Fold:
Amino acid sequence: MTASTLEQGDTVPALEDAHLDASTESGEASVARPDNSLEALQELPRAPSIRRHPFGALVWFLKACLGLLSLVALLALAAAIPVANVFTLGYLMEVQARVARTGKFGSAAYLLPVAGRLAGIVLGVTLWLLPIQFLSGAARDSWLLAPGGSVTWLWTAGLVGASLLIAAHLLMAIGCGGSWSRFVRPLNNIRHLRNQWRGGEYLRNAHRALRDFLAAMRLPHLFSLGLIGYAATYVWLVVPTYLFTMLDDVTSRFQIFGFIVGCILLTISLMWLPLLLAHVASEGRWQAMFEMSRVTRLAGQTPFRWAIATAILLACSILPMLYETLLKNQIPPHAARWDLMLVFLVTVGPARVLVGWVYHRATQPSRCVSFWSGRLWQCVNGAALAIGIGWYVYFLYLAETGGELGQIAVWQFPALLLPAPF
Structure:
């Protein structure tokens, strides 16, 4: 068995018995890369040249947009479900880790092909169900107007026959891979399945494709990474947040002192935690959450980028809280949380990717500067960031005391974790 490396430090078993697809077009044979290989499912292929292949570039762009929309929708739905939201946080941390290791924003397109394939299947099934819905409505109306009539039985027979044919076509299209062409070429699906059955390769190929599909998503890894993210956040913030939210009696000196200490500790913790979570995601180790000294050194390598990225992340985390407090109550009442998760992913998700890129820049060799000028630059950026985070902590205090969320606005840590799914 050989090994193929997807990313630095991320090695998975390569496919055994790789497929060889012979292409006889133009009298030439070519070896095709397997459609269900791990790399093809995890990463988008390189975009074709617009000048040389304009149609191919357009198709690539449409597939990327479809995959992005479906991926955001799937993550929003998963984030709104308890326990499943751990997978969403793990995905965000995995994307951040890939950008932190490579320094390329294109690495954030993780699992876009998988999401695009799922979206294509859902869309294809939905379109093919439209004729069944039409026939079902016609048959129902016929039974209401002329129950037992010949026309009514014809509509019913047409509904049953169309349902069986469309169900068989959808099963064959999904069984052949679920690509767009499979949903619009039923005869080709029949020929393909017939050839596979005759060669005795269908079950083996289907098992391999399903195995690769599940292996590409790496669900156990995402769940473990999400748990590490939750643990790291609460380890560093549970004490400052408890002190910050303990002020119930403004006449109690003990509570006032604890509140002030909590504000200071919360400000200091929020300065380093975004970069620490990027470090934890990149390393993928539980012990990495305690390597604060290494994170502070990395922040000192690129203080300006660190301050800007952290400020952007915290500023973006305010938008989901404002939406939940101000706008969610203005729309028709509903208990679902997927809309809040959608706002969170659109705003906070890109900011987390930016923090991952800053982490990568901090790990690269930097130009030499004098000791005192470097220290001065670090202090200036650190002081500016501390002031900005101080205003963020003040906003949390207002959200806690004057908002409808109360202490939930503080304890859910939207800048670092996910909004509460309940």
